[in-house]
C-alpha cells in the first residue's frame, strides 16, 4: 500500500469523530454569498485532518472520553490551520489549493485576507465558550508564533541559515499547532494526571518531522498543488539546501535531511512509549513510521 492508503486506514479508526469536527467547522460559517459557499466547500475539500487525528488517537490510547468540548477544541485547531492556509496562499501568490482555485484566485487578496481573519474570529468565539483561560492562552501563544515564523521566513528569504534557525522556523510555522492540538484537549477533567510537557513534546517532535518530510518531498517529488523545488525558487531554503551548502547542491543534503527526519521520529516515538498498548497506540506508531516514507 502507498502512503495515502496506509494513512486512510489509520484515519478510519477515528473517522466518526473527524466527521463531527468537519460538521462543526462548516456550521459556524454564516456570511454573505458567494463567499459563504466557497468557505464551506474549502473547509470540506478532501483533507488529511492530521492534527485532530493525532490528538484523537492519543486521547483514545489513554482511554479518554471524547467529549463535545474536546471536539470543539479540535475544531478550533482545524479552523486556525485553514485560516493560515488562506493567508499562506495570498503570501505565496498560489492559484491552487487541494486541486481547487485558492480564495485569492477566486476572488481577490483583499477578500481573502478578511476571510482568513473571519475564520480566526470564529475560532476565538469557540475558544471563549470553553471558558478555559489556559486553553485560550495556549492558542493565542501558538497563533503568535505562527505569525512570527511567517515574518521571519519573509525576512530570511534567499539566505542560507543554520539548521538551528530552520528548526526554530519549523516549530513556529508548523509544530506548535501540533503541540496545541495534543495538550489543549487534556486541559479538561484530567486532574493534572498528565505530564503536559511530555504530551507537548510528542506533538512538537511529530510536527517537526512532518514538516521535514514535506520539505523533502518538495525537492524530490511533484504534486498537483506544489511544483518541485518551489520553496527554493521562492527563496525559502530548507534543510536540504542548508546541509548541501547551496541552492545548486541541495541533492547532496538529502541524506542528512533524512537523518534529521529520523531523529525527530525517534524522539516522538519515545514520548509515547508509556502509552497503554492498544490499537490507538499502534496506529500512532504506524503513523510515525509513515513519515519515513519519502
Please, could you describe this protein's structure?
The structure is a single chain. With 294 residues, this protein is mainly alpha-helical. It contains 14 helices and two strands; from the N terminus they run αααααββααααααααα. It has helices at 3-11, 15-27, 35-44, 50-61, 68-92, 103-106, 109-130, 133-155, 163-183, 196-220, 230-233, 239-244, 254-271, 279-290, and strands at 96-97, 100-101. A two-stranded antiparallel sheet has the order 1-2. A hairpin with a 2-residue loop joins strand 1 (96-97) and strand 2 (100-101). The model has no long low-confidence stretch (mean pLDDT 92).
Summarize the structure.
69% of the residues lie in helices and 1% in strands. With 294 residues, it is mostly helical. A hairpin with a 2-residue loop joins β1 (96-97) and β2 (100-101).
Write the layout of secondary structure elements.
Layout: H1 3-11, H2 15-27, H3 35-44, H4 50-61, H5 68-92, E1 96-97, E2 100-101, H6 103-106, H7 109-130, H8 133-155, H9 163-183, H10 196-220, H11 230-233, H12 239-244, H13 254-271, H14 279-290
Antiparallel strand pairs: 1-2
Helix pairs in contact: 1-14, 2-3, 2-5, 4-9, 4-14, 5-7, 8-9, 9-10, 10-13
Amino acid at each position: 500500500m502507498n502512503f495515502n492508503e496506509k494513512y486512510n486506514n489509520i484515519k478510519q479508526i477515528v473517522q466518526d469523530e473527524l466527521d463531527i469536527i468537519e460538521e462543526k467547522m462548516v456550521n459556524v460559517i454564516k456570511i454573505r454569498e458567494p463567499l459563504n459557499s466557497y468557505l464551506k466547500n474549502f473547509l470540506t475539500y478532501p483533507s488529511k485532518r492530521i492534527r485532530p487525528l493525532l490528538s484523537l488517537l492519543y486521547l483514545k490510547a489513554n482511554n479518554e472520553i471524547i467529549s463535545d468540548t474536546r471536539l470543539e477544541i479540535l475544531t478550533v485547531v482545524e479552523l486556525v490551520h485553514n485560516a493560515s492556509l488562506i493567508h499562506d496562499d495570498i503570501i505565496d501568490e498560489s492559484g491552487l489549493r487541494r486541486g481547487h482555485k485558492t480564495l485569492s484566485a477566486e476572488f481577490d487578496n483583499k477578500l481573502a485576507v478578511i476571510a482568513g481573519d473571519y475564520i480566526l474570529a470564529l475560532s476565538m468565539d469557540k475558544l471563549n465558550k470553553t471558558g478555559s483561560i489556559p486553553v485560550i492562552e495556549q492558542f493565542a501563544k501558538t497563533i503568535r508564533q505562527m505569525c512570527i515564523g511567517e515574518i521571519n521566513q519573509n525576512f530570511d528569504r534567499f539566505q542560507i541559515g543554520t539548521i538551528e534557525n530552520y528548526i526554530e522556523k519549523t516549530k513556529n510555522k508548523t509544530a506548535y499547532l501540533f503541540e496545541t492540538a495534543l495538550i489543549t484537549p487534556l486541559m479538561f477533567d484530567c486532574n493534572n494526571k498528565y505530564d503536559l510537557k511530555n504530551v507537548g513534546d510528542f506533538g512538537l517532535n511529530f510536527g517537526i518531522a512532518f514538516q521535514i518530510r514535506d520539505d523533502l518531498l518538495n525537492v524530490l517529488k511533484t504534486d498537483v498543488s506544489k511544483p518541485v523545488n518551489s520553496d527554493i525558487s521562492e527563496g525559502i531554503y530548507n534543510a536540504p539546501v542548508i546541509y548541501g551548502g547551496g541552492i545548486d547542491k541541495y541533492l547532496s543534503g538529502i541524506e542528512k535531511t533524512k537523518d534529521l527526519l529520523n531523529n525527530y521520529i525517534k524522539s516522538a516515538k519515545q514520548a509515547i512509549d508509556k502509552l497503554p498498548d492498544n490499537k490507538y497506540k499502534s496506529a500512532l506508531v504506524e503513523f510515525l513510521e509513515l513519515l519515513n516514507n519519502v
